[in-house]
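[stage:ingest] chain + small molecule (nickel (II) ion)
[stage:ingest] validated
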Amino acid sequence: MLLHLKNILTPDELHSARRLLGSDAPWIDGRSSAGDQALAQKQNEQLAQDSENAGQLQALVLAALQREPLFFSAALPKKIFNPLFNRYSGNSNFYGTHIDGAVVHSRATSQWVRSDISCTLFLAEPSDYDGGELLIQEAQRERGIKLAAGDMVLYPGSTLHQVAPVTRGARLASFFWIESMVRSTEQRQLLFDMDMALLQLRRRGDVPAVVQLTGTYHNLLRMWADT
Ligand code: NI
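[stage:predict] done
[stage:export] tokens:
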């Protein structure tokens, strides 16, 4: 499943986020957080995780996720890794093909999080930089994703992906992982599709069949979810 969620952040929040990610923010070499395999492939900058800027930005992103029902329905989150922030510009401008670590340790929460879902929240407008597409490997082709500032993409953590070189400007983004209550991508997709269809049916009136199907949704979720 690859899901595009629009307007996760408001224009005011984007403004605050970009201010906190300005040139005087505590940027460090992104390789400090890469595993051995990713090390040679990774050339970007990352905001120091334990900085005050990162704390404010994390709170901003987590609050935005809380108010987005589509995010909850699609991700069914059990644990959300504290959002991280990166910048691709100048000579630190790409991240070659890799797969994210299966379990990631958060220094902020001392938790291990299984990366069922990877998330990228775009913070710079596409017109502010050239290149920088998130390239996701699908069965037959690579799909390029470059979203409006404030939009987010969710994709399975098991996916090969890369960030194409940025040749002008700066690409700012937040990225993080989710351990879902429903581990299987296929089961999560079925639940999401059913939830979206129920939403449409409910708008047409709460007939007994809708009540019954809603019950079926919850019974499937009960069968598949681990909390
Ligand atoms: Ni990655």
